[in-house]
Amino acid sequence: MTSQIREYKAANFERLYQIDQAAFSDDIAYSRLELELYLRSRKCRTLVSEEGDEIVGFVVGCTEPRKLGHIITIDVIPHRQRQHIGSNLLAEIEQWLWRQGAEAIYLETPVDDEGAKGFYDKHGYFVFDRFEGYYNNSLDALVMMKTAKR
Question: Mind listing the pLDDT tens digit for each residue in 103-121?
Fold first, then answer.
């Protein structure tokens, strides 16, 4: 079955929260409040990937000052990872951020998550910086960036 990407609806919140909790460890997963703040922000856009009536993944991207886009999270239910769902979500949110005027897009990923780093490398991101103690003051994050093609 092919997944379809559509806009987030408030009625989807519980499912997105469940996916985030399943996709990430307790140290990294968002609290209900954090996730809700991003999903409600006017600077952000949330897209969901759906197969039939089941949401299998989502992405949150936000516009920021100085012509920056920020990927807040890409979440895919664990047993559906590595099936191009994340790649499709990333492509859609990047297109939106570029149309909003972003000249670069950045994101954070745990330093010990080689799978995520490889995923972003494959999609044209490079390591730009490192934030110490980014996740719960204990785990460092790599800041990865992609610049607009001119």
Answer: 999 999 999 989 999 999 9
Are 49 and 5 spatial neighbours (Cβ–Cβ below 8 Å)?
Answer: yes
Ordered domains of the chain (ranges, CATH) = 4-147 (3.40.630.30)
Orientation angle between helical segments 13-23 and 32-40, nearest 10 degrees: 120
Run of H or E including 95: helix 85-99
Q: What angle do CA 114, 116, 118 make, to 5 degrees?
A: 65
Amino acid at 56: V
**Cα 146 to Cα 94: distance, rounded to the nearest angstrom:** 10
CA geometry: angle 142, 143, 148, nearest 5 deg: 140
Are the C-beta atoms of residues 61 and 19 closer than 8 Å to each other? no
- The whole-model pTM stands at 0.93
Three-state SS at 90: helix
